[in-house]
């Protein structure tokens, strides 16, 4: 399964299906746990694991699981007492249909000495992307980065991440999430405070966020918020001017 495509498809469908908050939370939890299994078609999960990850009460968990099954988001099979159920995530992604018969056929000589099967370019690119993902490359999508490195992506957090991607950029959102991890602050409010600061300073690129000028401007703004005297501000700005001229 393609995590990003499934996330986008779920967000497009969830409002139309009127899923309950518990069902939404359970879907995100199962997606995260399935990701850890390597996207197996079927995977077993003890109820205690799902309850611990989702923070749902047992009764809400059972209702949410039934709701997801009835609305076609998951399949699950109970194996009896003291055995973990088997789950299967049902893809909500609608792939575009390619009409191969309508494609023109050019009279190109065929080289039968080639042992490599003819694979469409977009398929080869998709295969390469999957190989990269399997090798442990850092996700380039902020939603997926949060899910893989911080925790379960709730609908509220997903909406806030989307907001900041539109306000600034995907790169800056990922940078803020990385800084939160570096400081062991595994909650989105910390990253959002960084994004708010960058927006107030007029940061527009990853290079600006990482530059010393941004840090210097931030120090000046902090001094202003603390009510420093005019003479102290003059000293600070003079220091910044000398730094730029070096």
Descriptive report:
The protein has a 3-stranded antiparallel β-sheet. With 246 residues, the protein is mainly alpha-helical. It has 12 helices and 3 strands. Helix 6 (142-149) packs parallel to helix 8 (170-182), helix 8 (170-182) packs across helix 9 and helix 11 (212-225) runs antiparallel to helix 12. The chain is elongated.
Please estimate the helix content. Answer: 55-70%
What's the pLDDT, averaged over the residues? Answer: 75
The number of domains is: 2
Structural class: mainly alpha
Structure annotation, total helices: 12
- Give Rg in angstroms: 25 Å
Shape: elongated
- Poorly predicted regions are 108-137
Number of strands: 3
- The succession of helices and strands, N to C, reads HHEHHEEHHHHHHHH
State which percent range the strand residues make up: under 5%
How far is it from the N-terminal to the C-terminal residue, by CA?
Answer: 52 Å
Q: Provide the spatial order of strands within the biggest beta sheet.
A: 1-3-2
Instruction: Characterize the main sheet.
Output: 3 strands, antiparallel
Output the keywords.
246 residues; Arc Repressor Mutant, subunit A; single chain; mainly alpha; 2 domains; three-stranded antiparallel β-sheet
Q: How would you summarize this macromolecular structure in one to three sentences?
A:
This protein is mainly α and 246 residues long. The chain has twelve helices and three strands, in the order ααβααββαααααααα.
């Amino acid at each position: 399964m393609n995590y990003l495509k499934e996330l986008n498809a779920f967000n497009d469908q969830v409002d139309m299906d009127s899923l309950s908050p518990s069902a939404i939370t359970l879907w995100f939890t199962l997606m995260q746990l399935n990701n850890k299994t390597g996207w197996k078609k079927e995977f077993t999960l003890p109820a205690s694991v799902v309850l611990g990850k989702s923070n749902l009460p047992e009764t809400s968990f059972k209702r949410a699981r039934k709701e997801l099954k009835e609305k076609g988001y998951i399949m699950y099979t109970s194996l009896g007492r003291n055995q973990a159920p088997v789950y299967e995530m049902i893809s909500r992604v609608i792939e575009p249909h390619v009409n191969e018969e309508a494609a023109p056929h050019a009279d190109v000589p065929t080289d039968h000495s080639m042992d490599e099967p003819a694979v469409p370019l977009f398929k080869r690119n998709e295969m390469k992307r999957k190989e990269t993902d399997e090798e442990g490359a850092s996700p380039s999508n902020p939603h997926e980065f949060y899910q893989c490195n911080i925790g379960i992506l709730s609908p509220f957090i997903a909406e806030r991440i989307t907001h900041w991607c539109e306000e600034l950029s995907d790169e800056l959102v990922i940078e803020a999430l990385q800084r939160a991890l570096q400081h062991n602050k595994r909650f989105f409010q910390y990253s959002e405070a960084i994004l708010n600061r960058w927006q107030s300073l007029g940061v527009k690129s990853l290079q600006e966020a990482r530059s010393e000028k941004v840090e210097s401007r931030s120090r000046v703004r902090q001094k202003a918020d603390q009510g420093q005297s005019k003479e102290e501000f003059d000293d600070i700005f003079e220091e910044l001017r000398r730094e730029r001229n070096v």
